[in-house]
Amino acid sequence: MRLAILLAAVLLPAVLYSIFTAYTGYRESQARTQETLVRLGELAAGRAQLLIDSTHRLLTAFAATDFASAAGNAQPQCTARLVDLTDVFNEYTAFAIVDANGRVLCTSVPSAVGLSVSDRAWFQQARMTREIAVSQLILSKLNNAPVVVVAVPLGAKGQPFRGEISVGINALWLVGLSDATGTPAEGVTFLVDRAGMVVTRSGKLIDAVKVQDPGATNLEMAALPDNKVLHAAFNQDLRQFSGNGRDGIARLYSVTNLAHSDLFVVIGVPESGSTGWARRDFMRRLLASMAILLCALIGVAIGGDLLVARGLRALSATAQALQRGDYSARPSLRGGSREVRQLADTLTNMAERVQRHEQDMSRSVQQKEAMLKEIHHRIKNNLQVVTSLMSIQANRLGDEASKRALAELQRRVRALGLLHRHLYEGDDLRYLDFGQFTVELCQMVRESSGPAARGVTIEVDIPPIPITADRAVPLGLLITEALGNSLKHGFPHNQAGIIRISLSVTPEGLATISISDNGIGPPPPSADNPAESEMSAGTGMILMQAFAQQLGSALTVEGPPGTTVRFSFDLTEPGIIAPA
Fold first, then answer.
1. In the chain, what are the domains?
2. How far is residue 439's CA from residue 448's CA, in Å, rounded to a whole number?
3. Is the pTM of this model over 0.90?
């Protein structure tokens, strides 16, 4: 180890110098690329600026003529002339002359005469400054096309404001002029205003602030930087910066502002293409230096520490495997000192003793689980025999009341048998799935209620809560009694209806089960005791009260309309695992 440290100290200065020279070359290449990109941006903006400046001169000439001054008096002739101008200059979408109040007097779009543009920022700017006004990227009121409006006040300077003459420059022309600048094939060009509006090559005007996922709207937006980065560049007058596009690709960007406007030409070039060769050269030189140092250290390590520590690593790996419970792990040693071999033999003997003890315990647990499953299975079979005997006895009875009482008792026994079946069929004998148990319990009660329950739908909304048998017994029997009462009393004359069973849990772990139906509601109080209804005095209600007390809860019955039986219990008590 000391030899490896000494060798690393000797080679480190040479490695650091190689890395420094490679990084310096990379930075110089990146600076040249950024300078070239700024010049491309200036060239792109110059072409678009030339169109805006020529438009300014054209409008200034028109504003000083009688043609513009007489627009309101000779509206048909004015419209015809403006239409001819639009046909001649394809880069313009529409000309318009507006009065001092912003009302369109004459335009190349006849249907737009009379429209008001007083709310437009470009109109207000030209009226206040009496100078040229260039709008941001907007949709024209005249023809609903994406344009940049250039407006010039009518008349000479110093005269009262009489209105403006304006023209909408087709935004696609500006994008085309900005794009035809010799930009690399992998580069992208955007025309963006300070508000974040962007014109795509397909002619769409998109608000970049509202578009977070470019793939959902337009793939042309994918190369545009994030809105916060772009606005920071506008506000800080940055000429160039680096960042990621919305597609996650790292790019170098240049930003050039068009004069007299809030328009910017943004050009982006992927860093992988512009400075990729320099980065690759830097990485090659870095990796070569690191490889030399690494090979030297590996040679020293193989000749020294690795050969000495091989036996200790094998022992450490075996100890970790034993700690994880893999008692079949044994140390594999090749050579080594006598002390290491003795330690390996001791570790092997200890692992064999622990493994034998673990196997004995596993067999004991499996035998006990098999016995418990057999006990639950036999209890379920015995309960089936009991229900069969009840059926035979019920067939021999002539009293209908006795038959009904015996059928209700048989239903309770079947509920207990269903519970024991879930216990011995489950993966863990300590718990059963209360949600699945409740679903099958409701199906059993419905089938045992005869034709009267055919029109009743039972909806169960209980999550799969693991619960022990000592808590499942009172819960299952209570639900059985409540459901049987609803089917027996709530829907007379084969009436259709719905019974809903749900479970809700508070953050404190208090669970509430509700069994509600849309039937006729609880029976009215009896004549002997007006405060006590037939349901509250019945055997089923007595049993439900007893089961609720066993759960440490109080039972409530509400209705009409319908009947709702509700009780609560604490999920945090032993025997119940609260749902996650």
1. 31-173 (3.30.450.20), 182-277 (3.30.450.20), 442-580 (3.30.565.10)
2. 15
3. no
Tokens (6 digits) for 558: 């509400």
Q: Which positions ≥6 away from 557 have C-beta within 8 Å?
A: 522, 535, 536, 541, 563, 564, 565, 566
Query: Per mean pLDDT, which range of 93-102, 106-115, 322-331, 563-572 is the poorest?
Result: 322-331
Are the C-beta atoms of 442 and 460 separated by less than 8 Å?
yes
Is the confidence at residue 536, as pLDDT, over 60? no
Cβ burial 328-362 (10 Å sphere, 16+ → b, else e): ebebebeebeeebeebbeebeeebeeebeeeeeee
Euclidean distance between CA atoms 434 and 60, whole angstroms: 85
Angle at 305 between CA 301 and CA 309, to 5 degrees: 130
pLDDT computed for residue 310 by the predictor: 67
483 touches 510 (CB < 8 A)? no
Burial of 531 (0-12, 13-18, 19+ CB in 10 A): exposed
- 376-412 residues labelled b (16+ CB within 10 A) or e (exposed): beebbeebeebbeebeeebeeeeeeeeeeebbbebbb
Helix (H, G, I), strand (E, B) or coil at 116: strand
> What digits encode the pLDDT tens for the residues 456-509?
888 989 888 887 777 888 888 888 888 888 888 888 887 888 999 998 888 888
Give the integer Cα–Cα distance in Å for 457 and 225.
58
Phi-psi region of 563 (alpha: psi -120 to 50; beta: other; left: phi over 0): beta
The Cα–Cα gap between 307 and 284 comes to 32
Going by C-alpha positions, the residue among 424, 405, 491, 500 that lies closest to residue 455 is 491
* Alpha-carbon span 577 to 580, nearest angstrom: 9
Rg (C-alpha) for the chain, rounded Å, is 44
Whole-number Å distance between alpha carbons of 443 and 437: 10
Question: Of the candidates 124, 123, 170, 132, which has an alpha carbon nearest to the alpha carbon of residue 148?
Answer: 170
Question: Tens digit of pLDDT for each residue in 132-178?
Answer: 899 888 888 777 788 899 999 987 677 788 889 999 888 877 777 65
Check residue 252 and give its pLDDT: 84
pLDDT band at 212 (very low <50, low <70, confident <90, very high): low
**Residues 182-202: what's their mean pLDDT?**
78
Question: Would you state the pLDDT for residue 150?
Answer: 92
Burial classification of residue 185, based on how many CB atoms lie within 10 Å of its CB (0-12 exposed, 13-18 middle, 19 or more buried): exposed
What is the rounded average pLDDT of the residues 248-268? 84
Pick from 144, 139, 149: nearest CA to 52: 149
